[in-house]
């Protein structure tokens, strides 16, 4: 079993070179920024298991004598430990690159046609080749002879790979079947052929077929039985590679089957006054932080001790501080707060008149304080003194971090904290702790938000590839409809009481610091059928998602999100990107470097750039968008 | 006024055209974009309407002569920080309402910037209306009616001073846009069945707003 699946991608398996192009540079992903490109040869090679794009460096061609050569499968579905450990341990061993064409979503030619960027199906992995002497045209031309492509609607330099062209000599290939006809016999014939054929062919066109099955109008869909056949794992014991636990390199396709079953994760009781008191030793230090966080994660905190527990969760008080130390700390922090508050309080009108950056921030705060949570008893009514507190804390925060200043959404983040603390100094320092976690949400260029939206897409693709595929196909792969959720941590989606629980749960950073993304996946999972069945587009999806506000049950959502994490955690063969988002080992590293993070959001960044470009050029159609 | 701009009874036939248009609201933070939409779509006004995060999407239908105009309304966040998201919303829009606050001169300046951006980057035939909102606070006005009017004429914008609070000119500004939009076959939505009952319901609902 092992041998067979391994040999598929083994160097020794012979292939036919369809096209070769010399003088092509490549920089391995493990290289540092200063590393130079290695010059080599880029080819398209046909193997029994499908066609691949291969790159080999010039200087090692002498070593290409069979199975000894190391192949860097730039293939997100490969077991992460195998590829990353090789690459990390010794970058020099990334000698060659082989990418199955079935793994490629699109390609983009840029830099005066000298750069060829291959975007993989997970949209996160990119491989770039540099044509050092000529342009990429002759290569892309050859590529187009083996795959069907379609120019992107958003970017004229990007071509999406629609489908691999099937060898003409292959009998009963997919091209023989007109998938868009509505004849049931054809579908059944297709199914039986598919089951008896080599699985490689089956898988290479699987996505097209599943799209047909899942997204066609319900009345045109073949019988439920057919659909079930495809949703379930194919029963082919004679074919070892389909045995999910053993096969290698194909998890991209089998990932749905490979996720372990969900285990129920019931919610617990909130942290009680007694538990909280017992957690502290005689001096008031908390030793078993882990256990405490676990209780909070599972059930939140009782109302009466929230104002105390939050100070720890938000990093205002260190867990290992004694009661006495905390008293001292609070004194110091109080002084510091009032010093900063005095800075803006003592500004004269003349100063202010010549300080537009300050004035702009102040104006924004005035506008938002007046309209933040005014239906909460804590803030309701005219001349409510708590509005003054909200204003003072936000203004002081502007002095604390003038560069970030005030951005819409911050008053939403402060409001629950202030209502729990009732004290401006404590509220301020807790808010500072919260902002430390989420300040990137307020980046001027939205890069923090784009990165999270991209990570959310990664997780959704792992849990519900059909939904993420649907969103991609409906102009919503950028996940912008979740912008509000992530920007203010669901503040506009749940009631005040629920938000307090949700936030304290997420502040524990259990089971991972991206739990808010799992919460998003849990919510989307519930809406999946509605979105797909109604065939919603960008606007309808956004409206539907916005309208979920105050209609969700927090406990169910949390239980589902937890169960999803456990399911993913226990599932082998998650993509590296998914593991990285979840902070699981094998996802390169827990503290992924910023360059890796950047590459994560590259797909979105490209999309945004294309979008902005479209806008720059002006939309000349003026036609109602198609529905 | 209601009769002038209000819906007209269909002439007994079910052949009325239905057009669909994308409309986007732009303008400085807290000038009343969401409030205008809320008034137009639901006939409501919230004194402390919360700030918009990301964008909101609503629809409303009006009748102009023999045509039903369905607006797909994109309501956006006004703060400059979220400016980079705006093209996503005004892309492909056939109409825009640029809103300012009559009591705040800065917001009028910002409105002019939006108009310029739309003229440069949005669809070339976009119908732009300028709305001087919070007209109920005219005693605190800092933008003169004549000033805004002159600017609007210069730039060929529809212009009205509105109040989402009192409903003044809210339906009117949307109707003015609906009248100005080209109701050619391109915008006719063939997928919407022309249903006389729905038509009447819409007219009755709309009439309730006047």
UniProtKB/TrEMBL annotation, chain A:
Span of domain Rab-GAP TBC: 300-510
Classification via Pfam families: RabGAP-TBC
PROSITE patterns: TBC_RABGAP
Gene3D superfamilies on file: putative rabgap domain of human tbc1 domain family member 14 like domains, Ypt/Rab-GAP domain of gyp1p, domain 3
Transmembrane feature ranges: none
GO cellular component, one term: cytoplasm
Keywords, comma-separated and alphabetical: Acetylation, Cytoplasm, GTPase activation, Phosphoprotein
Location relative to the cell: Cytoplasm
Protein name per UniProt: TBC1 domain family member 15
Function: Acts as a GTPase activating protein for RAB7A. Does not act on RAB4, RAB5 or RAB6.
Subunit composition and interactions: Interacts with non-phosphorylated form of RAB8A; phosphorylation of RAB8A at 'Thr-72' disrupts this interaction. Interacts with ARMC12.
One term of GO molecular function: GTPase activator activity
From TrEMBL, chain B:
Subcellular location: Early endosome
Gene3D superfamilies named in the record: P-loop containing nucleotide triphosphate hydrolases
Keyword Transmembrane helix annotated: no
Assigned EC number: 3.6.5.2
Primary location group: other
Keyword line: Endosome, GTP-binding, Hydrolase, Lipoprotein, Nucleotide-binding, Prenylation, Protein transport, Transport
GO biological process assignments: protein transport
Matches recorded under CDD domains: Rab5_related
SMART domains, alphabetized: RAB (SM00175), RAN (SM00176), RAS (SM00173), RHO (SM00174)
GO molecular function: G protein activity; GTP binding
One Pfam family per UniProt: Ras
Entry keyword annotation includes Nucleotide-binding: yes
Cellular-component GO terms for this entry: early endosome
Catalytic reactions of this protein: GTP + H2O = GDP + phosphate + H(+)
Assigned protein family: Belongs to the small GTPase superfamily. Rab family.
NCBIfam families in the cross-refs: small_GTP
Protein name: small monomeric GTPase
């Amino acid at each position: 079993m092992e041998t067979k699946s391994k040999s598929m991608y083994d160097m020794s398996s012979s292939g036919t070179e369809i096209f070769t192009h010399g003088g092509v540079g490549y920089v391995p992903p493990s290289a540092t920024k200063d590393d130079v490109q290695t010059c080599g040869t880029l080819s398209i090679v046909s193997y029994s298991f499908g066609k691949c794009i291969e790159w080999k460096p010039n200087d090692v061609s002498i070593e290409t004598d069979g199975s000894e050569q190391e192949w860097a499968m730039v293939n997100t579905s490969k077991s992460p430990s195998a590829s990353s450990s090789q690459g990390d341990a010794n970058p020099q061993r990334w000698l060659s690159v082989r990418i199955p064409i079935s793994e490629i979503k699109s390609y983009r030619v840029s830099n005066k046609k000298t750069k060829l960027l291959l975007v993989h199906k997970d949209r996160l992995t990119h491989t770039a080749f540099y044509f050092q002497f000529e342009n990429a045209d002759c290569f892309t031309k050859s590529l187009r002879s083996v795959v069907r492509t379609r120019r992107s609607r958003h970017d004229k330099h990007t071509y999406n790979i629609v489908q691999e062209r099937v060898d003409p000599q292959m009998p009963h290939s997919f091209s023989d079947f007109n998938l868009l006809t509505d004849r049931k016999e054809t579908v059944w014939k297709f199914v039986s052929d598919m089951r008896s054929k080599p699985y490689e062919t089956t898988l290479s066109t699987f996505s097209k077929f599943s799209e047909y099955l899942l997204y066609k109008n319900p009345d045109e869909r073949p019988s439920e039985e057919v659909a079930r056949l495809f949703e379930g794992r194919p029963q082919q014991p004679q074919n070892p590679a389909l045995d999910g636990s053993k096969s290698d390199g194909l998890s991209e396709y089998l990932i749905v089957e490979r996720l372990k079953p969900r285990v129920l994760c019931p919610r617990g009781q909130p942290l009680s006054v007694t538990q909280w008191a017992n957690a502290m030793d005689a001096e008031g230090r908390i030793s078993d932080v882990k256990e405490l966080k676990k209780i909070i994660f599972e059930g939140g905190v009782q109302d009466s001790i929230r104002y105390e527990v939050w100070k720890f969760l938000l990093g205002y008080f260190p867990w290992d501080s004694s009661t006495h130390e905390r008293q001292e700390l609070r004194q110091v922090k109080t002084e510091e707060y009032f010093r900063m508050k005095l800075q803006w309080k003592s500004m004269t009108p003349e100063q202010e008149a010549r300080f537009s950056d300050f004035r702009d921030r102040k104006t924004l705060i005035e506008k938002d304080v007046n309209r933040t949570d005014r239906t909460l008893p804590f803030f309701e009514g005219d001349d409510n003194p708590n509005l003054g507190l909200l204003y003072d804390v936000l203004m002081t925060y502007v002095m604390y971090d003038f560069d970030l200043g005030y951005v819409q959404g911050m008053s939403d983040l402060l409001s629950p904290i202030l209502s729990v603390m009732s004290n401006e100094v404590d509220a301020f320092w807790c808010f500072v702790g919260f902002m430390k976690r989420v300040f990137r949400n307020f980046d001027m260029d939205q890069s923090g938000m784009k990165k999270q939206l991209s990570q959310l897409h990664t997780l959704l693709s792992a849990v519900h590839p059909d939904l993420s595929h649907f969103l991609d196909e409906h102009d919503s792969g950028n996940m912008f409809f979740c912008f509000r959720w992530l920007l203010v941590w669901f503040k506009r989606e749940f009631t005040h009481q629920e938000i307090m629980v949700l936030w304290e749960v997420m502040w524990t950073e259990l089971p991972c610091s991206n739990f808010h993304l799992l919460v998003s996946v849990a919510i989307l999972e519930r809406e999946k059928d509605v979105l797909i069945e109604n065939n919603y587009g960008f606007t309808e999806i956004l409206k539907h998602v916005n309208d979920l506000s105050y209609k969700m049950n927090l406990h169910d959502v949390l239980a589902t999100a937890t169960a999803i994490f456990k399911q993913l955690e226990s599932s082998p063969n998650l993509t590296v990107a998914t593991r990285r988002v979840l902070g699981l080992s094998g996802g390169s590293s827990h503290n992924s470097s910023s360059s890796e993070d950047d590459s994560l959001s590259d797909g979105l960044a490209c999309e945004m750039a294309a979008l902005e470009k479209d806008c720059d050029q002006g939309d000349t159609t003026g036609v109602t968008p198609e529905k | 006024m209601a009769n002038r701009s209000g819906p007209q009874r269909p002439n007994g036939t079910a052949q009325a055209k239905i057009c669909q248009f994308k409309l986007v609201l732009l303008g400085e933070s807290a000038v009343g974009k969401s409030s205008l939409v809320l008034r137009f779509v639901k006939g409501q006004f919230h004194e402390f309407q919360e700030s918009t995060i990301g964008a909101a999407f609503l629809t409303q239908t009006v009748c102009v002569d023999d045509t039903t105009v369905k607006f797909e309304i994109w309501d956006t966040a006004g703060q400059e920080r979220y400016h980079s998201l705006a093209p996503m919303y005004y892309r492909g829009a056939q109409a825009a309402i640029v809103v300012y606050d009559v009591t705040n001169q800065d917001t009028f300046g910002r409105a002019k910037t939006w108009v310029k951006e739309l003229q440069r980057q949005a669809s070339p035939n976009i119908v732009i209306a300028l709305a001087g909102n919070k007209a109920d606070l005219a005693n605190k006005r800092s933008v003169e009616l004549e000033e805004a009017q002159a600017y609007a004429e210069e730039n060929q914008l529809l212009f009205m001073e509105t109040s989402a609070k009192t409903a003044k000119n809210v339906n009117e500004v949307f109707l003015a846009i609906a009248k100005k939009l080209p109701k050619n076959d391109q915008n006719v939505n063939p997928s919407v069945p022309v249903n006389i009952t729905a038509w009447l319901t819409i007219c009755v609902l709309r009439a309730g707003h006047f």
